[in-house]
Amino acid sequence: MKKSKKQEEKVKKTKHHYDKGQIFVKIMAGILAILMVVAAASTLIYSLMI
């Protein structure tokens, strides 16, 4: 059973392909999200200590 060229192109399009820019953006978004949570928690702890 041979696949036609159109079916092969559809298979190639469905695979996830991440370039370096997308990976960098996802990592930076994760780091910034962690920093926001840490900043909010530290602000809450500081305000409760006063």
For the residues shown, what is the average pLDDT? 84
Instruction: Please give the alpha-carbon distance between the first and last residues.
Output: 74 Å
Q: Over the alpha carbons, how many angstroms does the gyration radius reach?
A: 22 Å
Could you give the count of β-strands?
0
Alpha plus pi helix count: 2
Approximate shape: rod-shaped
Share in β-strands: under 5%
Low-confidence segments: none
The computed structural class is: mainly alpha
Biggest sheet features: none
Structure, explained:
This protein has 50 residues and is mainly alpha-helical. It has a domain at 20-50. 80% of the residues lie in helices and 0% in strands. The longest helix has 30 residues, at 20-49. The protein is rod-shaped.
Identify the notable features of this structure and list them briefly.
50 residues; mainly alpha; 80% helix; 0% strand; rod-shaped
Question: Summary?
Answer:
The chain is mainly α and 50 residues long.
Q: What's the SSE blueprint?
A:
Layout: H1 5-14, H2 20-49
